[in-house]
Amino acid sequence: MKHLLIPLLLSSLLCTAQQKQIAITIDDAPIMALPESYTPAQLKATNEKLLQKITALHTPVSIFINAANCITPERLQLLKQWVNNPLITLGSHTLNHSNCADLSIDSFKMEVMINDYIIRSVAKGKPVPYFRFPYNAMGKDSMAQALRLEYLKGKNYTAVPFTIESDDYMYETLYQDALKKKDKEKAKEVATAYIKYTLHCFTYFEQLTKELFGRDISQIYLCHVNQLNTDYYGELMKALQGRGYQFVSLEKAMQDKAYTTPVYYHQQYGFSWLFRWIPETDKRKQYLRNSPEPDIYNAYEALKAKK
Ligand SMILES: [Zn+2]
């Protein structure tokens, strides 16, 4: 009997050591919010390479789809590749990536309904259990948010929060600029800064999590389909593994009791749920003031102004 107990004890100890869990969520699949900067070949390569890396690393991923961006045959084909991958869970992200805080409830319902219809026609029976609000803007006030959440519930959607993100779209903009100028060194520099900043965000939000909950919780990471994430997906996942993370499905992550915490913030800004779970407004504002900011922010703004 004794020899049976030892492996059991060991495995339970290992399980305790592996409590840090993370669900990877990727928005704007299969096409990012800046489609004009991508050639069709680049878009295809970005999607296919990202899917290959997800498959090779065996990381469960949930994607959030804007069907209005998928209606050409080529893009529908890309969406089908995501749908057909067993590691991928499907979510809706509205038809047009609209800011739902600016929409009437009827327009919001149309955005959800038409998106739902198109995704399900491609998904062919694969479940679409999740919904993420574009810009994480759930509505302009608590009443508007409650109405939208109630509607989603009626459609069997779970509205999905996130806890950690790292402004990948800003780094991606600079990365594309460097690649277009064939400045490989600059592209590498941007990518290195992106990984460094992302890990810095993890340190900040892990600390905030411990202050709020007194423990680690299952984290939900948000990023986007883009070339930067694709090229550095392996590196980032390896770094997260090195921090003790185990990759889990969104369903598993959301089983953490932390996700039943009431939300106390009811405006439209799209920050982490870790801030929204802070009851005291002053305390929340203080944490927000001290939250990480990308060091490339000025360079990003300058580049955007030039376009
Ligand atoms: Zn989005």
TrEMBL record:
<feature type="domain" description="NodB homology">
    <location>
        <begin position="20"/>
        <end position="248"/>
    </location>
</feature>
<dbReference type="InterPro" id="IPR050248">
    <property type="entry name" value="Polysacc_deacetylase_ArnD"/>
</dbReference>
<keyword id="KW-0732">Signal</keyword>
<protein>
    <recommendedName>
        <fullName>NodB homology domain-containing protein</fullName>
    </recommendedName>
</protein>
<keyword id="KW-0479">Metal-binding</keyword>
<dbReference type="GO" id="GO:0005975">
    <property type="term" value="P:carbohydrate metabolic process"/>
</dbReference>
<dbReference type="GO" id="GO:0016810">
    <property type="term" value="F:hydrolase activity, acting on carbon-nitrogen (but not peptide) bonds"/>
</dbReference>
<dbReference type="InterPro" id="IPR002509">
    <property type="entry name" value="NODB_dom"/>
</dbReference>
<feature type="signal peptide">
    <location>
        <begin position="1"/>
        <end position="17"/>
    </location>
</feature>
<dbReference type="GO" id="GO:0046872">
    <property type="term" value="F:metal ion binding"/>
</dbReference>
<keyword id="KW-0378">Hydrolase</keyword>
<dbReference type="InterPro" id="IPR011330">
    <property type="entry name" value="Glyco_hydro/deAcase_b/a-brl"/>
</dbReference>
<dbReference type="Pfam" id="PF01522">
    <property type="entry name" value="Polysacc_deac_1"/>
</dbReference>
<dbReference type="GO" id="GO:0016020">
    <property type="term" value="C:membrane"/>
</dbReference>
